[in-house]
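User:
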Amino acid sequence: MGLDPNRALHQYSASRWQGISFPGGAVHAIAQTNDGYLWIGSQAGLVQFDGTRFRLFDHANTPSLPSGPVLGLVVDAEGVLWLRMESAHLFRYSRGFFEQAHPRLTDDRGVTIMTRDHAGRVLAAALNVILRFTAGNTGRGASSGRVGGLAISIAETEDGVVWLGMRDNGLFRVHRDSRLQVSGLPDQKINALLAGTGSELWIGTDSGLVRWNGSAATQHGVPDQLAHGPILALARDRDSNLWVSTRSDIVRVDTHGISSTLAGHFGVGAIHAMFEDREGNLWLGGPGGLVQLRDSPFVTYEGLNGGALHVDDDGRAWFAPSGGGLLWTDGRARHAISVAGLDTDVIYSICSGSEHLWVGRRLGGLTRLREVEGQFTAKTYSTEDGIARGGIYALHCSGDGSVWAGSLAGSITRIHQGRISTFTSSDGLSGEAITTINETPDGVIWAGTAGGLHSFDGGAWKSLTGADGLPPGRVNSLVVDEKGVLWIGAAAGLLYWTGTRAEPLSQAAELLRAEILGIVSDRRGNLWVASEGHIFRVARDSLLTKRKALTAAVREFGTADGLPSTRAVRRDHPVRIDPSGRIWFALHGGVSVIDPTRARVLPPASVIVESITVDGQPLKHETLARYTADRRRIVFNFNGLSLSFPDRVRYRYRLDDYDSDWSQPTQSREVAYTNLPPGRYTFRLMASNGEGLWNGSEVSVAFEAEPRFWQTWWFRVAGAILALTAMVTAYRYRLSRIRAAMNLRFEERLAERTRIAQELHDTLLQGFVSASMQLEVAADLLPENAASRPL
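Assistant: Predicted structure:
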């Protein structure tokens, strides 16, 4: 979805780069490559833009690219960027390299204009010839006709006809071998051509805008402000709106022929280049620099600071400025209400019933307005009529026709069918200032006060306390969603009524635990919340299911989204929803409105790993990147390209086989790892877009930390074998030494034992011999006939 055609041009958010913030000077052409980079052909050369940083490519830092202005840019179907230099030569840029695309062209026969044809090729006009180029074609190109004169604009319509706008001799229609000059033009200088549907062609001349309707040139349907002056540039957005640049204005013409004009050119001069990027933003380039028009989610009505807000059933928005008075608008003009002294009183609160508008006043009580034939009549109720004392700060118009009015004095008045009933502290109210009133589908009236919450059911008021789950402090806002759930915006944060007690959202994001000033529920299941200093949207079901992580369910808005500030006024219901579903915020600095059905979803951010360095040295990563593991620090530099909200892009990364999980979201575009052990790794990267959605695919880079020779497997195996061999050798040597020592000891012991045994043997034998000899002597001494004498 592109720029909202229902907005006036001044309601778009505009960003401007010129002077020292833009290095290119005058802008001649704008294009965007498939990776998301914006390219600007400028007087200083080729400029690349990623949403936050400009990079100038000139001959000084890119020797392959000649110096001089870049006058034309085209991206072909294969994503290659083609450059038309001032020298009339073509260059192309792909995969980080520049090369001359048509070396045979000379200055006198160079390309003077180029665009993209319906097949995605580059369609170019040189002197006397029309050429078509593809990324793989570096020759002369395919000729599709011959022309004469200097072409300064070119286009191809859907019927295959090539149109050439000349500097001096009008418009030519070239088809196959035929060449026809178009008559009936207001001027012969054709500055811009834009193909429409079918054979339709828009023609920008020096004397007005003309349309080719298929058979003739006509100014039928051309707005008056574009019918006569010079037309400098033409563009068409994705909603088929025509954008026209004149010498003094930017004009948008919708499909019904209705135009909207933005006077001036943001200080960058007459616009000669217009381009719509893939996110629907419109880029304008002129002599003084670059401008981006962005369709911010919010439209702001300024000059309505700090008061009450209400949108009635007819879609009219009512405002009460803090300085006093009452205004309403239908989107086209503002009207003031002066009856009943409303223009001099401060209005605290507003609500509307079927036929009346009720206004709570600081001094004048409660006023009922009724419109009859475009005129408002008023009836004011005061304390003399039984209205509660003090300023009427809170109002609620009930479905049964009754009106509930709460005062700063702590009383509540009910007006029903002409009867006035007022409730005070004697009826169960706390006596504290009434800050807001609402009603649940079961008919219970709820009243928030400066000190808590009350309910009215069955004719009696009940005060809710901590026993009912309600924390102490002020209750600022009460809203009932489409499911009948009562949401409570309090000083302690956001709560909801379960039917028996108030339940806090302790598990929710920090934004929901701050003081809540206003809440509203839309038709898409979201709550729109104004807290202290923050405006955001949160998915309602994510709160009721009590999920622990709600970061992804919360979308915060800021001044970049079209808000004048993020500080809501402290009034009854500073956030409202109108009958068409639009959400209104009363803020300091103005009143802002957003249409949730129109709010565009940004495409995924393009994620690019721009460089890898190892110890400060660049590492090529087109294939498997390698470096030796003795280097200590590897650094990844990356970028997530979102031209709408580049400062909101966040990144998550992980290193497979090293990190256990994805990192926490970070805004940093660099991550470093130190002392990685040898091995193969994959670095993975994701980016959120400007809305905080992680809706893009991840990018991965494989690399290898190569081991030094002492870290290789074969070195480790060889080392292990050598170590094992040394251990075995040492063991065996030790074993042999031990064995030798044991043998020596054994031999020593054996010798000793032998000696001892021998000594023992000799001594015993000598004893036996001696004994034997003695026995023999004794036997010899016995008588021969003695019985004991041996035989």
